[in-house]
Write a structure and sequence with these properties.
Strand order of the largest sheet: 11-7-6-13
CATH class of the largest domain: Mainly Alpha
Radius of gyration: 25 Å
Helix content: 55-70%
Shape: globular
Number of helices: 30
Strand content: 5-15%
CATH architecture of the largest domain: Alpha Horseshoe
Number of strands: 13
Length: 639
């Protein structure tokens, strides 16, 4: 086997892919390879390190051994995504990649994989469009998640040994999943039967745990977030671990159970402090509990040290509660009561899970409840803000604490935290007056955003000039994020004009637009802009499909029937210009708007009652009363 003696890496200014694993010559977007400590954030540094690891991993998984066809692209991309975390972790041992992987990869792919429109990891590909579409989070994230699940089952050493055999067997050849399964089966005869169903079946299970005196009954059913009452009978081999006390969370090697229902016997089951399934979220499934078990988990989370519940299981509980409420499995009032524990949370992974859940919830909060919701946000982030403080990272703090600060400051400032806003605006003004002394990269996102949001044309032009004169792609992205926070109609229009101009690279236009519309106050302005400038938008972005995508991204965040009606009237009167495909796409976006609206109306009373009780009515005593939480949870039994 010839050895590769040198690896070249090249930065490419305009590059549609993030990076490409050419044999011996890796190519990257500038933002994914060029790092400067005075201009790149800690997260951008990590992004560069992990993308390099991803592309190097492809030299084995993709180049030396190549998936036979795009229907099994996960054999390339799943391994590369897996090693971008776990290979980088061998070099950067203090970056807590395990904590990051669970939320950023496992929990994020669960969103797409809970929809009827998902697909299995191994999925037929016949056309060029289908081969492009297969490079999605199922192929990347879910591929990596299933590999992690198997590593914990086989043990790390056995997994490595099996992969070495697989690479030797298939070197300079193509590969199919059967080749991987065959290699794993040499070291464990059950490996294929446990792994294969996760690759050929779409979606994942919701596992429900019911307690009784002598143990726990476990049932599985596919989790479809919009179809809680479906009758599908898909079953997966379930990797089961559980904990009833702090010391048991370290047990991550699962036993696999098959069947729709099974028992976990345990003497004195009713006396345990809590029963939590899926230690460190190694298994790819959600967990729901009966009222008694949710009550015990809630009591533990609200106690000192969170009852010893592992940080990744706290992140799991946070993510599951937001999504089980969304899927009409757990009442919103119950979920939000338990999640009040976040007021004491100090770790990155649960907070990232919370930020993801709150982002989705914020888009579905009834417009009349937004002030209550803002008060709720400021309350649960209050202690976290006091812990992270508005300051640059210290030399000794953990890397993920730096990441947590960025999230906390962003949410605090966005929702009007006075101290946060004052500090950010003051730092922006200092930078404006003395541009030679830059803002610390890890504070730029919040400083640029708040400085522009609270500023005028003068501040906007200053930052836009910085954008035009910097040659660092990472800094350009941070500036685009800041400019996206423009709050006046005039500045929003100027920003949208800038996105259509050649000044913003084609590869950055989509991100720049997202930065604008994530500030919900921009949506009416953006909608009008697209109606008036659709031809310019189509020309600068490549097609009317991009116009449709822009409208649909607005509709996904919109809470105004009158604005919806204006968009609807616009597409009817411009059907011929838009073309059938773009017209049909926006019609689907309008239908999704209606679905989202019905979701908001259906859950409004429960969410409003929780927020109103908390903000206006003796919240402390209510929240301390765990028996009330258990009472609320009894609603589970009647649903």
């Amino acid at each position: 086997m010839p050895a590769m003696t040198r690896m070249y890496m090249a930065a490419v200014p305009d590059f549609s892919a993030g990076a490409m694993e050419n044999w011996g010559l890796l190519t990257y977007r500038e933002a994914n390879i060029l790092y400067r400590s005075d201009d790149s954030t800690s997260m951008q540094q990590q992004r560069i390190a992990t993308v390099i690891s991803h592309e190097i991993a492809h030299q084995w998984f993709g180049d030396l051994v190549t998936c036979e066809w795009w229907d099994v692209a996960w054999l390339n991309e799943g391994f590369a995504r897996y090693y971008e975390y776990y290979a980088t972790a061998l070099v950067e041992t203090n970056w807590d990649f395990e904590d990051q992987f669970v939320v950023a990869q496992l929990q994020s792919v669960m969103q797409m994989d809970s929809l009827r429109s998902t697909h299995p990891m191994t999925h037929p590909v016949y056309t060029q469009a289908e081969s492009s579409a297969i490079f999605d989070s199922i192929t990347y994230n879910k591929g990596a998640v299933v590999l992690r699940m198997m590593e914990h089952y086989l043990t790390t050493e056995t997994f490595k040994t099996a992969l070495r055999a697989y690479i030797k067997d298939r070197a300079f050849k193509t590969t199919r999943p059967e080749d991987l399964f065959s290699a794993l089966n040499r070291y464990d005869p059950n490996a294929r039967s446990y792994m294969e169903p996760w690759t050929v079946q779409p979606g994942y299970p919701l596992v429900t745990v019911t307690s009784h005196d002598t143990g726990f009954t476990v049932t599985q059913k596919r989790f479809l977030v919009n179809e809680p009452d479906h009758n599908e009978q898909t079953a997966w081999p379930l990797p089961i671990t559980f904990a009833t006390k702090a010391s048991e969370f370290s047990i991550t090697r699962p036993a696999f159970y098959t069947g729709m229902t099974f028992e976990i016997p345990m003497q004195g089951a009713s006396d345990v402090e809590y029963f939590i399934l899926n230690n460190q979220q190694v298994g790819y499934y959600r967990v729901n509990y009966d009222a008694i078990l949710w009550g015990k988990i809630s009591k533990a989370l609200h106690s000192e040290g969170f009852g010893g519940i592992h940080v990744l299981n706290r992140a799991q509980i946070v993510d599951d509660l937001f999504n089980l409420a969304r899927g009409d499995v757990v009442p919103y009032g119950t979920a939000l009561e338990i999640l009040e524990y976040l007021k004491e949370e100090t770790e990155y992974a649960p907070w990232l899970a919370a930020v993801n859940g709150l982002t989705t919830l914020s888009r579905r909060i009834h417009a009349d409840d937004e002030k209550l919701f803002a008060a709720h946000i400021l309350d649960i982030f209050s202690k976290a803000y006091d812990i992270v403080k508005f300051q640059a990272p210290t030399a000794t703090e953990r890397r993920i604490f730096t990441y947590m600060r960025q999230n906390v400051l962003q949410w605090a400032c966005n929702y009007g935290h006075e101290e946060c806003s004052k500090a950010a605006v003051a730092e922006f003004h200092r930078y404006h007056q003395n541009p030679s002394v830059k803002v610390h990269p890890d504070l730029r996102q919040v400083v640029y955003c708040e400085g522009i949001r609270k500023g005028s044309m003068e501040e906007f032009e200053f930052l836009w000039n910085q954008y035009l004169t910097t040659n660092m792609a990472t800094e350009q992205l941070l500036i685009l994020q800041g400019l996206g926070c423009a709050s006046s109609s005039e500045l929003i229009t100027i920003m949208l004009d800038a996105i259509t101009s050649p000044h913003v690279r084609s590869q950055d236009k989509s991100n720049a637009f997202t930065y604008v519309i994530n500030n919900l106050y921009t949506l009416p302005h953006v909608s009008r802009y697209l109606q008036q400038n659709h031809a310019i938008w189509a020309a600068s972005h490549g097609s009317y499909a991009n116009v449709a995508s822009a409208f649909n991204n607005v509709l996904a965040r919109l809470k105004s029937d009158s604005e919806r009606d204006v968009i609807s009237a616009f597409i009817e009167s411009n059907k011929n210009i838009l073309g059938q495909a773009a017209y049909d796409s926006i019609k689907t976006g309008l239908e999704d708007y209606e679905t989202n609206k019905q979701f908001t109306l259906r859950n409004r009373d429960e969410i409003h009652e929780f927020l109103d009780n908390k903000i206006n009515g003796g919240a402390a005593t209510i929240l301390a009363n765990v028996s009330m939480i258990v009472g609320l949870l009894m609603l589970l039994l009647t649903r």
